[in-house]
Every structure is written in structure tokens, then in C-alpha cells.
Design goal:
The complex is a heterodimer of chains A (about 425) and B (about 210). Chain A is of the alpha/beta class and about 425 residues long. Chain A is about 55% helix and about 10% strand. The radius of gyration of chain A is 22 Å and the shape is globular. Chain B has two domains: about 80 residues, Methyltransferase, Methionine Synthase (B12-binding Domains), Chain A, domain 1 (Orthogonal Bundle); about 120 residues, Rossmann fold, CATH 3.40.50.280. The chains are: A alpha/beta (about 425), B alpha/beta (about 210). At the A-B interface, helix 13 and helix 18 of A face helix 4 and helix 8 of B.
Chain lengths: ~425, ~210
């Protein structure tokens, strides 16, 4: 046990748990193996709610998270409201980028899904590069939500100055723009309700001794291009057809996006951010493409957070074993790499003394396995990755929605008994 | 193969999209046999597939190769008499993303790789109701069914689909493979499938093995 974690043993349960996480992140051995609870809809199902209810009922969702946290006693929990409870707001906005339970064709008790599509055309790069904010306001927001379509009529301010600013107010009085603005106010009020439920829950769980493990979300710049702007097909083709424009766009994203993440985390008084990755895994891109289009930009994003005193928790989806030698290049003790199918022994070898590892009980085992299998897996995993600290136990992508409660309980119980 | 043909194969397999499409256009305009031209495309696709299997090419290259094949195919096919297209296939595979899951990238890449390996692929799309799989198996009598799913909710949908195929009396002499982000041996056993694959090469080798058995 490190001197710092010993010092914390007389501290409050909240301080002890937080210290356990910080010890792991900063590559010291904590008193015992730390865990984080990260789930989208498992907590809701465990509480007897459908996915739809979790997306619409803020207070019951709070009760569900509270129950799961109290039962499992993780050392950190990832607040879930901001990741799932946006049903009412999406209804107000007539939001188009997600398909969600009970909406259109989807059943009441399945999670929401992102709709992969081209939200920015290949010939719009120039427009984005010239004025990203203008593009987002006039083109992107009208495309992702029907209620925001009239925003396309708003003035283009870089060319509107002096008394033209006064005259430009006319646009806001147009009936359709007025309706859009009123809808945005209603949507904003709904988000405030949701956020205030989340803030109350975070405070309540803090009082019960449980720290939050993420206060915001950010992305890899390539994922922004591929998931949110060009669509997966468009982005992959752009690696050949629009290589330079794609790189320039990602330069803009690399600078602009972490600013929003840093402000969100600071505003919430936190020190951790969650960064799920989608396109960095083995097999999707060549090593050369990865070191040109993915890692350098992501590395800059990570450094922006680290320089702001924020620990990034980077979820490396899929198998990223071949990326380990590249991605180890970050300052020691500042990042968490959350692995799904990456070879954990190789990860430990490459990242020892550099990056805290989090993961990776397989989703399949949590869903279809037994508590014994889960315990055995955790034991083997700890033998491989636990040595010297720098390890947080979690599911491969957190707790899958369909996981059996007894398997999940077995995982958290293992950690509580796993003393350094 | 003539020099122009070789040049086309080289341009496609080296990802020179503009040059390849331009050359194909020029060849067709000058009266080049469209069937022969498509043969060159097939050869180029075999090279692309091989480089993918060997870890030299990745998804972006497959995607671009697919775009080139489509562009050239769209130019050449209207010039070909229907009866001169060979109908011989390595076997028939029905593929689809199971009910409740809307993801299609993995499924599309598997479809592409199976097609360039000579399989006839019936793609049922995404969020495919169980009844559509069963109906399509009756209609097309495939050797293999591929169930795709990225999300963990797909595990149950896969299991139910396999059960429905069995109940319909169609499971004998049919191989079922599953694929997608989180599948593994546990999921294979859970769903009752015959095998799982982690990538498009796995799907091709499974189909080849099963069809030749």
C-alpha cells in the first residue's frame, strides 16, 4: 500500500474511494482493486425499468442509479442521465440522429442507437473550414433536428456589421425562426430539469461516499468526422479522396472540441472526462492511417485535458493490441485506457509505468456466463494486469444492458476482496 | 491479358480511383468488351481481397474498391447482354443484421468480401425480423446464414432467430455464422450458431470450408 493511500485510510468513505481511483490512475498500488460503474441501461433494468422509462423519467433513473451504486459499492460511477435521459428533449426538438425505444419502430426496452449517415457532404469541407460555427448553426443543426431547421435563416455575422447588426434582428422576428427559438427555450428548460436531477444525484451519492468518475464526454477528432459529420463511409473514402481537407477539418476539431470538454468538466467541479473511441481499433485502419489520421489528433486532445488537470478515461473499443506501441506516448499517470478486447497482458507490458488500464470482463460473460466464470476471469485478469497498481476493474465496455445481476455483483464483490 | 487490362487491374488494386474509372470509361468508349472489362475488375478485387487478408489493406481500401467496382460496373453492365453473365456461384449466403440492431458496416464488408470470393449473397438489411430470415431461407435455400449484430441486444435476437430457423425445420444442412463487435465463443454457444467470426476473412473462410465440405 502506498504512503498516500495509507494516509487516506482515516478519511471519509468518499475520500477513500476517490483516493483509490487516483492511486490507480497515478500508477500507485491502492489499498485494494478499484472499480467504476459504467452502464447505459443496465442500472435501469436492474431497478425494473424499461430503457424507454430510463430515457424519460429523471427521478426514477436517479433511484435506479442510487440502488445500483449502493448495492455494488464501486469506487466511482459514471453519471448516466446526460448519456441516456434525453427522451423528452429529443421529442421537443424532433431529433433525427438517434433511434430510441418507443420512438418510430424501436421496442420499449432496447437501448437507443445512433444513425450513421452523411450529415456533411464531401463538397462542404470548404464551408466548414471557412467558418465552423457558421456551418454548425446554419447547416448542421437544421439537419439533425426538424425543429431547428429555421436556424438556416439566421444572419451570417462575419459579414454583418455596424448598423447591419441592428437590422439583422429582423430575422429573429420571422414566425418560423420565432417558433424555433421558442422550441429551443423549451428544450433548454427540459435539459435543465434533467441536469438538475443528475446534479442532485451526484451530490447525494457523494454524501453516501461515492465519487463520480466522469463529468463530461469528448471524442477523437477522426470519430467526430466519421460519426458525426461525414458518416462512416464518407470518412473512409475521404482518406483517399479528400485527405488534406479531412486533416484540416480535424485540426479545427482538435482545437475547438476539447475547449467544450474542459469547460463542462470544470463547471461540474470534476477532474475526469470520458472519451469513447469508435474508429481506432485494429483492422479498421492501417497502422499508417492510424498514425496519420487518428492518433496525432487524439493525442493533442488528451494533452489539452491533461494540461487542464483533467484525467481522460479513453474507451478503446474492440481490439487495439496493434496500437499499443503508438498510444503509450502520453505523460505517465495522467490517463486511463479502458480496453474491451485488447490483449491485456500485452497492454500491461506496453503501458506499465505509463497508463492506468481499465476493463475488461467480456460482455458475453456478464450476459451469458456464471458468477464463477466471472470470478475466475477477474482473478486471472488481476494476476496479469493488477501487479504494481494502475488497474481499474470494469466490464469490457462497462456493464452491458443485458448482464445478469448475479454476474455483475460477482465482479464488484471480487474487487472489494482483492487487496494489494 | 492486354496491356490496358493490366493497367486497369493495377490502378484498381493500387487505389487509384480517378485513373481507374477514367481508363474504364475510355476502354468502353473505344469498344472494349465489357465482359472482359468486368473480368479485370474481378481480378483486381481478388488482389484487394488478398491484401486485406494479409493485413496490408483495411476497411477504407475495401470501401474504395467497392466504390470503383460499382462505378465501373454501372458503366459496363448496360452494355452486356444478360445471358452472357455467368451465373455460376460458389454458394449462396443469406446475411442480415438481426432484429433491433441498426448497424450495417460489418455486414456490408462481409457481403463485399463474400461476393468477391464468388458467393451469391442475399442481403436482408438491418433490423431484420426473424420471419424474414425464415422466409428468405425457404426462398433461396442458402448453404450459409450470417447473423450480424454490433450491440449486446443482438445476442438474444440471434438466439431467437436460430431457434425460429430450427422450429421451421430449416436448420439441418444449414450453417449459421454470427459476427459483430462483441461476439465470441460464449455468444456462439448461447445463440446456438455453428461458428462466430471476428472479421470478414473469418466469414469467407467459414463459408468456403462449409460449402466445400
Amino acid at each position: 500500500m502506498s504512503a498516500e493511500s495509507e494516509a487516506s485510510s482515516s478519511a471519509s468513505p468518499y475520500q477513500q474511494r476517490l483516493q483509490r481511483l487516483i492511486d490507480a490512475i497515478e500508477l500507485r498500488e491502492p489499498d485494494r482493486l478499484p472499480t467504476i460503474l459504467f452502464s447505459h441501461f443496465w442500472v435501469a433494468r436492474y431497478y425494473g425499468m424499461t430503457c424507454r422509462e430510463a430515457m424519460y423519467d429523471y427521478e426514477r433513473l436517479s433511484a435506479a442509479v442510487r440502488k445500483a451504486v449502493v448495492d455494488l459499492e464501486p469506487d466511482g460511477f459514471q453519471p448516466v442521465h446526460a448519456s441516456v435521459a434525453f427522451g423528452p428533449t429529443m421529442d421537443i426538438l424532433d431529433y433525427k440522429q438517434l433511434e430510441w425505444p418507443g420512438h418510430k419502430g424501436l421496442a420499449e426496452d432496447v437501448g437507443f442507437q445512433y444513425l450513421d449517415a452523411e450529415y456533411m457532404a464531401a463538397d462542404e469541407y470548404q464551408e466548414y473550414l471557412l467558418d465552423p460555427s457558421g456551418f454548425m448553426l446554419h447547416k448542421y443543426m437544421p439537419r439533425v433536428a426538424a425543429a431547428l431547421e429555421p436556424l438556416s435563416q439566421l444572419p451570417e455575422y462575419p459579414g454583418v456589421l455596424h448598423t447591419r447588426i441592428i437590422q439583422s434582428m429582423e430575422a429573429y422576428a420571422r414566425p418560423e425562426v420565432r417558433r424555433a427559438l421558442e422550441t429551443m427555450i423549451r428544450a433548454g428548460e427540459e435539459v435543465q430539469k434533467m441536469r438538475s436531477a443528475q446534479s442532485r444525484l451526484i451530490q447525494e451519492l457523494k454524501d453516501l461516499g461515492f465519487p463520480a468518475s466522469a463529468y463530461g464526454t469528448s471524442h477523437a477528432p477522426f470519430d467526430v468526422a466519421a460519426d458525426y459529420l461525414r458518416g462512416s463511409k464518407g470518412a473512409m473514402l475521404d482518406l483517399f479522396r479528400n485527405k488534406d481537407k479531412l486533416l484540416s477539418l480535424m485540426d479545427r476539431v482538435t482545437t475547438l472540441m476539447p475547449r467544450a470538454g474542459v469547460s463542462a468538466v470544470k463547471a461540474a467541479g470534476g477532474n475526469m472526462i470520458f472519451i469513447p473511441l469508435h474508429w481506432g481499433l485494429d483492422g479498421f485502419m492501417s497502422p499508417k492511417q492510424f498514425t496519420t489520421f487518428f492518433w496525432p489528433q487524439l493525442q493533442k486532445v488528451l494533452m489539452t485535458f491533461i494540461d487542464a488537470g483533467i484525467y481522460p478515461h479513453v474507451l478503446w473499443e474492440g481490439d487495439c493490441t496493434s496500437r499499443l506501441d503508438v498510444i503509450k506516448d502520453v505523460p505517465p499517470g495522467k490517463c486511463v485506457y479502458f480496453f474491451e478486447r485488447t490483449d491485456m497482458a500485452k497492454a500491461k507490458q506496453a503501458l506499465r509505468g505509463k497508463v492506468c488500464i481499465r476493463g475488461n470482463v467480456p460482455a458475453s460473460m456478464l450476459i451469458a456466463g456464471t458468477p464463477n466464470e466471472v470470478r475466475e476471469y477477474c482473478k486471472k485478469l488481476f494476476d496479469v494486469v493488477g501487479d504494481g497498481g494502475g488497474f481499474i476493474l470494469d466490464g469490457g465496455v462497462g456493464i452491458p444492458d443485458e448482464a445478469k445481476p448475479e454476474n455483475v455483483l460477482a465482479m464488484y464483490q471480487f474487487a472489494k476482496e482483492c487487496v494489494y | 491479358m492486354d496491356d490496358k487490362g493490366k493497367q486497369l487491374v493495377n490502378q484498381i488494386s493500387e487505389m487509384q480511383e480517378e485513373d481507374a474509372v477514367k481508363l474504364a470509361r475510355e476502354l468502353l468508349d473505344s469498344g472494349y468488351d465489357p465482359v472482359k472489362l468486368l473480368g479485370h475488375c474481378r481480378e483486381a478485387m481478388e488482389i484487394v481481397g488478398k491484401r486485406y487478408e494479409e493485413g496490408e489493406y483495411f476497411l477504407p481500401e475495401l470501401m474504395l474498391a467497392g466504390e470503383m467496382l460499382k462505378a465501373i460496373g454501372d458503366m459496363a453492365k448496360p452494355l452486356i447482354k444478360q445471358d452472357s453473365i455467368s451465373a455460376k456461384t460458389a454458394g449462396t449466403v443469406i446475411i442480415g443484421t438481426v432484429q433491433g440492431d441498426l448497424h450495417d458496416i460489418g455486414k456490408n464488408i462481409v457481403t463485399f468480401m463474400l461476393e468477391i470470393n464468388g458467393f451469391k449473397v442475399v442481403d436482408l438489411g438491418i433490423d431484420v425480423p426473424i420471419a424474414n430470415f425464415v422466409g428468405s431461407i425457404r426462398e433461396h435455400k442458402p448453404q450459409v446464414v450470417g447473423l450480424s449484430g454490433f450491440l449486446t441486444l443482438a445476442f438474444d435476437a440471434m438466439k431467437k432467430t436460430v431457434e425460429a430457423i430450427k422450429e421451421a425445420g430449416l436448420r439441418d444442412n444449414l450453417k449459421i455464422m454470427i459476427g459483430g463487435g462483441q461476439v465470441d465463443d460464449t455468444v456462439k454457444n448461447y445463440t446456438g450458431a455453428d461458428a462466430f467470426g471476428l472479421n470478414a476473412m473469418d466469414a469467407v473462410s467459414l463459408c468456403k470450408r462449409w460449402v466445400s465440405a
